[in-house]
Amino acid sequence: MKVTFSEGDIIVNPHEMVVRLNNTSRVTVQAETDALTLIGGANVISAVGSGMKWSIKLDNAEQLETLAQELGIAIEFY
């Protein structure tokens, strides 16, 4: 499944997520589902594990909910 947001595209399946940013360097980050945290309210994807640490802010809560459903993980609120 592909979700487009203002900064690029997010491609997800039940096992992993790939984020491709639409900047001049065409940054791509990837994480397995087990390394992801979806943070509600702030609409942030956070990935931590195996020497990696990154986060991406989404445009809205609907995008985060779509990703949560596709990945099969809950949105956390702090």
UniProtKB/TrEMBL annotation:
Species the sequence originates in: Aliivibrio finisterrensis
Source domain of life: Bacteria
Name by which UniProt lists this protein: DUF3389 domain-containing protein
InterPro entries in alphabetical order: DUF3389
